[in-house]
Amino acid sequence: MLLLLTAVFVPYLVLAALSLRMIGQERQLETRRTVEERQRRLALVGQQLLSLLENFKLRQLAQLPPRSQGTTPGPPVDKSIAFVGLVRESRLRLPWDDDPGARLFRGLVNEARFASQLGQAGAEERAARLEKAAAMYNRVIETARRPAQQAYARLLLAQGLEKAGRKPESRRQYERVLELPLQHVDEYGVPLAFYAAPHLLGDDLRRQGVLRAIRMAAEREGWLSPAALYQARDLARTLKVSELESRFTEQIRDREQAEALQADFARLVSVRPAREPLWIAYGQPVWMVSVAAGSGGADAWVLAVRADEALRALDSTIRLAGQGEGSSLGESLPGLSVVIPATGPPPANYRQTLLVSALTLTLTLTLLAAFLLWRDVRRDMELAEMRSQFVSSVSHELKTPLTTVRMFSETMRLDEEMDRQTQCEYLDTILSESERLGRLVDNVLDFARIEQGVRIYHRQPARLEDVVEEAARVIRFPLTQSGFTLDLAVERTLPPIEADRDALLQAILNLMTNAMKYSDTSRRVGIDLRREGDDALIAVTDYGVGIAPEEQVRIFERFYRAPASQSQYIPGAGLGLTLVAHIAKAHGGDVAVRSSPGGGSTFTIRLPIGAE
Ligand code: ADP
């Protein structure tokens, strides 16, 4: 059995181990492939991002002012560009610090005549001669050369009128300042219109004007100064236009980051390796900063692009990495790390599924084969066991009658004065025992013929009642000797049937012998011949040990003997019922048993009347 299991399972286990190894290798390969694919994608994204950034650089370069026009770069060429600054004397200049408008304003306000006129008007105002001051401001406005000067004087006039309680006139002046184009800024780069705006929020119509002004500021190309942005944001907040407010907040953050960049600029430049082009990640939100060789009016210039927006323009699935995650995009983009999502769902691993299914199928088939093999082997072993038991049982069965015959013959020979009646009794016993011996030998020989397939039945018309009565006659002596009574019931209306008389007799005698053997303490048996429809039924009944239901199907198998404790010491070879079943079948009928343990048994041979 162990050998069998080894033979069946060892190859399977080897197969399973090999398959598992294959699956493992396949997985490793798959992981390596995924890693390579990721690296390829990273390299590609790095290249694409680099060329996008370089493209911005080229376009922005075209916007740089000629050397003669100072250091203010043109407006950003793309909304992803957060900052452009020129480098002069190793210092990064912030474009709003060099606003030409602010410079101009400083010059005009300090012009001697204008300044002294304003100074006089201011003195009148401080001396609380407000009417006079207003008149003087009006004169300044009329005589001023430049719109910036007019606007400035107008702002002061409006303030003066407000103080003098001439509200409507004051508001009119403020309105006029509000209408000024945004490039009219003061020395801090704040549009003069923004100073008028807070005084005009009182009624709806004027609020519209203020809103228009800050909307224009938000959409204006160029670099509003931080001070201007703070004012614009405050106005947006007062007007409750959150979209504009957040836009200004964002721009303020950009300005602050640019100031930080200005402070860090020397350090940033010092880390520049030889590699070109180079874009260094800086700050939070991340800017990609590049320093380009000088051109126009500068030693060098600096461009900063918002990394998230640039990446989004390339591929919306890629995002900037947070702390401690992501992968670098190469040496040209130091400090930048991104997260690239897995490329779609992993491909279904058909080979793996196939292997696992094949293994499962093989296991099922192996188990099935092992089961069938095991069943066959067990049957063979059982049969071999039964055969060896058969030989010893047959020898034992033959010995009993032989001993009786010998014992009685010897007694008769030694006792010469034995009376006639005893002699007759002895002779009857010897006759009955030799008949039993004959039946036993017949059973064994017939069984051998059946096994070889050469058992022949000689059928002739026979009357079943004769056969049954003959059986009763043959068995009567052993029955009475063992103290049995026989209930014989024979229906005499049955027609003769084509049958092998001797075979039927053998079958009935086998059943009768069994009935006696398995009667235990009961001393009654019965034979019953009757007709039922088109069948003749021969039933042999006893009231003995009976047969358990699960045994009833097996007792007709060759050599089979029920393992009940009572029948353990009863001689038998397990052939009787096999022969009965064969004979019944050869006559077109069958044999059935009805029995319960301890309640006796009835074996019924059913033969069709008129069967061939
Ligand atoms: P055996 O030589 O053992 O009697 P059989 O083929 O005649 O062989 O019977 C097979 C088995 O069936 C017996 O061993 C016995 O267990 C059971 N059997 C047969 N006839 C009877 C019966 N009348 N009552 C109880 N058990 C019986």
What does this protein structure show overall?
By secondary structure, this protein is α+β, with helices and mostly antiparallel strands. It has 17 helices and 15 strands. It has helices spanning 2-61, 100-109, 112-126, 130-143, 147-163, 167-178, 192-196, 204-219, 226-239, 242-270, 307-314, 350-414, 420-452, 464-481, 501-517, 549-552, 576-586, and strands at residues 81-88, 91-93, 280-282, 287-293, 300-306, 319-320, 327-328, 337-339, 460-462, 485-490, 497-499, 524-532, 535-542, 590-595, 601-608. β4 (287-293) and β5 (300-306) form a beta hairpin. The longest helix is centred in the middle third of the chain and has 65 residues, at 350-414. It starts with a helix and ends with a strand. Adenosine-5'-diphosphate is lined by residues 514-515, 518, 542, 544-547, 555, 560-562, 567, 572-578, 601.
Major sheet characteristics? 5 strands, antiparallel
Rg calculated over all Cα atoms: 61 Å
| Residues in helix, % | 55-70%
Fraction of residues in β-strands: 5-15%
Q: What integer is the average pLDDT?
A: 87
Question: What's a concise summary of this model?
Answer:
The protein is α+β, with helices and mostly antiparallel strands and about 600 residues long.
What descriptive keywords fit this protein?
612 residues, rod-shaped, 5-stranded antiparallel sheet, 17 helices, 5-stranded mixed sheet, alpha+beta, binds adenosine-5'-diphosphate, single chain
Topology overview:
Blueprint lengths: L1 H60 L19 E8 L2 E3 L6 H10 L2 H15 L3 H14 L3 H17 L3 H12 L13 H5 L7 H16 L6 H14 L2 H29 L9 E3 L4 E7 L6 E7 H8 L4 E2 L6 E2 L8 E3 L10 H65 L5 H33 L7 E3 L1 H18 L3 E6 L6 E3 L1 H17 L6 E9 L2 E8 L6 H4 L23 H11 L3 E6 L5 E8 L4
Parallel strand pairs: 10-12
Antiparallel strand pairs: 1-2, 1-5, 3-4, 4-5, 6-8, 7-8, 9-11, 12-13, 13-15, 14-15
Helix pairs in contact: 1-12, 3-4, 4-5, 5-6, 8-9, 9-10, 12-13, 13-17, 14-15, 15-17
Bound molecules: adenosine-5'-diphosphate.
